[in-house]
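A reminder from the course coordinator: this example appears on the midterm review sheet, so study it carefully.

Given structure:
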């Protein structure tokens, strides 16, 4: 029994000694830990060209648009081209029932030809002094009267056709064959869409900046089309009193017909161009009471910098002052940093 108690006592002593050693070892390790700061990633700052854009919303419009109609009243006889058709300038689109006008035109043409023949003969023999001046003048004035009536009939007959005043596409049709069309009543809607224009309103404070001939960038929602370059083709001379903007127009090629009228687009007008400007990601900037701030890495610490900005484009911000080339901008792990906090760069 004494041997057993002696053995247990030895084991307990060994355990106590081992625990003491472990504790001392842990204390030594904890007393000299490797000091690590907040984990961050940095970006070395460089300078580049920066273009400050004025961004406004615009709407695509057809370059040309016209509601076509007959100039004579009557019943529609036929449509040679219909909705969705592409037409060339001068193509006949619709024809009115013009048989009565055509018959009158044929009769007047016969009178015209006879009057012209008579006038030519009377003119020839008058030069030879065969007939009287009265007979010559009578044939002349009769011919001129018939000619005027004939030309009027030709004009009326031409008004029974609708022809395309420009190349484009028929986007709508308002009447059908057999329906009566009054003079001036819209029959078809014709648009030129192989080239379109973008209309946008510019705030009046940019009246001295935005000029005709300036290059612009046009961006489309949901990436339905690649960005397009365009040139301002029109700048309004007046300001809209309702929203204090003036209108501009930009012509854009649309040979692929991927763009439709009335689409909403973003119009980026070049405001100013800068050389050797530092640009940084927009999301890392903090807005504080004294302005905008960012953090840079210096000597293993996070240093807060106050900055002034020129402008924003996309997700980039151009910095006017506060940062310089080759500084190490903290771009990851900046959210909870404080001034002079120790940091560890992991990239």
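Designed residues:
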């Amino acid at each position: 029994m004494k041997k057993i108690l002696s053995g247990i006592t030895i084991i307990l002593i060994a355990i106590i000694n081992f625990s003491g050693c472990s504790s001392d070892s842990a204390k030594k390790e904890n007393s000299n830990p490797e000091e690590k700061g907040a984990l961050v990633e940095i970006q070395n700052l460089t300078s580049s060209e920066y273009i400050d854009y004025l961004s406004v919303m615009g709407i695509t419009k057809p370059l040309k648009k016209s509601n076509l109609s007959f100039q004579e009243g009557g019943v529609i006889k036929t449509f040679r081209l219909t909705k969705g058709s592409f037409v060339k300038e001068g193509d006949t689109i619709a024809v009115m029932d013009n048989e009565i006008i055509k018959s009158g035109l044929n009769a007047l043409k016969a009178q015209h030809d006879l009057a012209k023949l008579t006038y030519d003969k009377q003119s020839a023999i008058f030069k030879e002094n065969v007939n009287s001046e009265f007979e010559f003048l009578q044939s002349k004035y009769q011919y001129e009267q018939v000619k005027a009536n004939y030309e009027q009939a030709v004009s009326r007959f031409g008004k029974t056709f609708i022809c395309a005043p420009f190349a484009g596409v028929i986007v709508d049709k308002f009447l059908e064959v057999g329906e009566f069309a009054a003079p001036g009543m819209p029959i078809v809607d014709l648009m030129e869409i192989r080239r379109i224009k973008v209309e946008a309103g510019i705030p009046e404070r940019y009246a001295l900046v935005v000029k005709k001939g300036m290059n612009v960038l046009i961006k489309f929602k949901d990436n339905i089309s690649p960005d397009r370059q365009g040139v301002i083709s029109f700048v309004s001379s007046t300001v809209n009193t309702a929203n204090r903007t003036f209108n501009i127009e930009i012509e854009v090629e649309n040979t692929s017909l991927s763009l439709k009228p009335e689409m909403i687009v973003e119009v980026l007008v070049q405001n100013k161009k800068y050389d050797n400007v530092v640009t940084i990601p927009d999301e890392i900037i903090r807005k504080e009471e004294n302005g905008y701030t960012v953090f840079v890495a210096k000597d293993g610490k996070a240093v807060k910098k106050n900055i002034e900005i020129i402008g924003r484009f996309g997700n980039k911000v151009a910095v006017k002052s506060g940062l310089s080339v080759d500084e190490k901008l903290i771009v990851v792990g900046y959210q909870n940093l404080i001034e002079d906090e120790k940091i560890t760069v992991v990239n």
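The domain at 55-62+194-273 is CATH 2.40.30.170 (Elongation Factor Tu (Ef-tu); domain 3). The chain has three helices and 19 strands.
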